[in-house]
Amino acid sequence: MQPIPRKVKNVTVYPYIDWKGGGVGPVILPVIEGGSGTYAVGTLLTSIFYNLNLASGTQKSKLGVHQKYFATGETEDGSSFTTPWMYCTDAGDKPEFGRTITLLKPQNDTLNAEALPEYITLGPLTDITVTQSFPPPAIGELLLIENGSGNVIATRTGTPHEMGVEVKTGNRVGHLRSGLKNIMITGKNKDGKTFTMGNLTCINPNEPAIFLHQFGPFE
Q1: CA–CA gap between residue 189 and residue 181 (Å, rounded)
Q2: Among 85, 80, 95, 91, CA closest to 35
């Protein structure tokens, strides 16, 4: 499908921080506020293309070409959207951002039937995006879930308790399976602030999908 640009408004652009240390990521301050322009999403075979072009907006700090950013905003009819992270391709007066994501192909791996740990919910999340980073030396990542909702969670037992996220709803564009590692989740908390959690493992691929940061012997 050829990307069809849609007019967008009230766009806020944030730097993307690849938070791999586990736990809750830092508060991220916007680099552009009040932006307007066009946002396009298109597909070709197993790839998705994203492009955000801004014609206006207030820059709070300097953009960097080839640096990673993501954005939130509204379409003309007032529907909200959140982009995946994208590279800045033009840092001038009319900034441009873009990215291509290769979707995860289905695999016939046997699901892990291990019983799920008991956990408690710590707070709601919206605008959830779930991706998996390729293991080194490969570069890139796969989109698994977008436009999701769920909760920050923690296991009831353990020292330390394992933190993670349950994703109750969302558009599944990739194939989830138990044991998938290098999972990154971004979203918004109840206060509308950006939430990021990395270094997660998929514990349950069903609904809700469960992702936990499992501590190793040296963490």
Answers
A1: 23
A2: 95
